[in-house]
Structure formats: structure tokens, C-alpha cells
Amino acid sequence: MAAHEGLAGGLLAGAGALWAAWLAFQAVQEQLGEERELRRTQQREAKEATVICIAQPVHAAAAALSAIETALRAKPNEWEDADKFVDLGVTFTRATLESFTVREGIQGLDVDDKALYLAIVATLAAFVNVSTNPSPTMLRQQRLENHRDLLMKLHRYLRPFDSELADVFVRDSGTAAHVA
After folding, report:
1. Is residue 131 part of a domain?
2. Domain total of the chain
3. pLDDT in tens, 41-86
């Protein structure tokens, strides 16, 4: 009988330990779920802030792209005025891109959004760079086409990053017919 009492006590103690372990596991799972949800909320809020940070450079780039499209259609006697508007678009894009909020905008984004954000900023920076340091061997038409091609790449990054910002870029740049 004493042997059975020891076995029964051991089984009850084991069952109690197993129950306590299960409760601890459930508590840890619940805490991990809460932390995941908190991280998702923080990333959502960071994304909203980042869209605000990048909106001005995107608006400036849309205006520059619209000016480039106009400059490409301009007649030779209109080139000087058309090119001034392109230069103005480049200047505005550069000024808005240099804002500290653009540099800090990447904070808190998830990996996919970070990659898209970096692609957007890199494309804008490349546009500003090639516009402010033009190749001396490139003709005006070629230069403008290269600028347009660079800015048109924003369509592929903006849509998955933020569809509303992408829609604004399409509208303001006048490139709806070119977007698939």
C-alpha cells in the first residue's frame, strides 16, 4: 500500500508540474502575441509618419516629371523656358530630399517597407545627382529622356509602399497613360 501511495503521490505531483508548465507556456505565448501586436502597431504608425516625411520630395519629383514631359514636347524656340521649369523641379526635389525628416523617416519600418523607402529615396537622389551633374556629351533630348526614365521608376516603388501617394504622383506628374 505504501508503494502505491508513493506512486500516486508522484503521479499527482507530476500532473501538477505538467499543469503548471502548461499555464506558464500559455502565459508566455500570450505575452509574445501582445509584443507582436505592439510591434505591428508601432510599424503601422511609423509607416504613416514616413509617408508624411517622403510626401514633399515625391510631390516635387512629380512636378519635375511633369516639367520634363512638357520640355520633351517643346519646340526649339520654347526650350529655354521649358528647361527652366525642369531646373526648378530639380531644385525643389533636392531641397525637399535634404530634409532631416527624410533621413529619419526609415526608423521603425518593417523590412519590406524599409527596402521600398530606400529605393524611393535612392531614385530621387539619383535623379537630383544626374540633373545637377549632367554629362557633357549628352544631348538635351537624351538628358531629358534619362531624367524621365529615372523618375518613372518611382511608380514601381510607390505603389507597394503607399497607394495613395502613388496615385498623387501619377496625377501630379501626368503619367497616368504610362503606368501599367
Report:
1. yes
2. 1
3. 777 777 888 889 899 999 999 999 999 999 999 999 999 999 999 9
Please answer whether residues 117 and 103 qualify as being in contact, where contact means their C-beta atoms are separated by less than 8 angstroms.
no
User: Taking Cα atoms as reference points, which of 136, 132, 168, 171 lies closest to residue 150?
Assistant: 132
Residue 167 lies in a domain: yes
Is residue 159 in some structural domain?
Answer: yes
Q: What is the pTM of this model?
A: 0.78
Give me Rg for the CA atoms of the chain. 28
C-alpha 161/C-alpha 112 separation (Å) is 9
CB 160 within 8 A of CB 84: no
Helix axis angle for 154-161 and 140-152, nearest 10°, is 20
Q: Cell 509574445, residue?
A: 32
